[in-house]
Amino acid sequence: MRRPVIGHLFRSGNSIPVERAQDLAKIGNGKIRFRDNLVIEGSETKFLSQFSTGDSMKFLTKGEQIKVEDQIIEKIVSDTEIILKSPGAKIYDPEYSYQYKIMPKVDQTTVFKNVEKVLSEGGAIAMFPEGGSHDQTDLLPFKAGIALMTFSTIINTGQVPVIIPSGLKYFKRHEFRSKVVVEYGRPYKVSKSLVEMYKAGEKRKAVSIMLKDLEERMREVIMTAPSYEELQAVYMARNLYLPKNLQAYTPE
Question: CB within 8 A of 197, min separation 6: which ones?
Fold first, then answer.
């Protein structure tokens, strides 16, 4: 959004910018070692000035990032010691000194407010719930953002967003004018019981249930096939054998 040409195009399309921690990441001073799964010790590091509670780290070794989840910092003990919120590296060498990246915590309050404004005015938001692009044949776990934005919109504006599952299936996507199938599924609205659960403080549970509901809806409009012709055959079979009077059940 800050780039001269691309930023202008996205702003013209009424895009809502989302700042990500990885966009602001930078290499930290010194190197670190793991005392155990939670405690990190640094050499020539400046943890107190470079980190804040809630920030996270990404560990680097031999030019590659270790695949680690939940690297959020729980406590900054000193310039040379940090405690992680949950077990960090699942695979690490306690004798190896790692380089690391500083991943600052990003406040998404502005993003949520912009989304709420658009939805409260009857607008629409296009969102990819997996939170990233990939070439796998199955869905990645959904990010919580779509659920949090939905609940905040309902609570703060009174508007109940309608979510339309949209499935995309590409073939030879590396080629110009590749074929793509777009299918829209059954509309989804958050039930009143989930909203009350969220208001009552059971936010994690409410979000988890909603994401599971959305994943089920998404799987209704995503079908894997090795070729466009085979996908067409599957759609033809479905149209021939699916009863026309079939009614979907929508939980309240």
Answer: 205, 206, 209
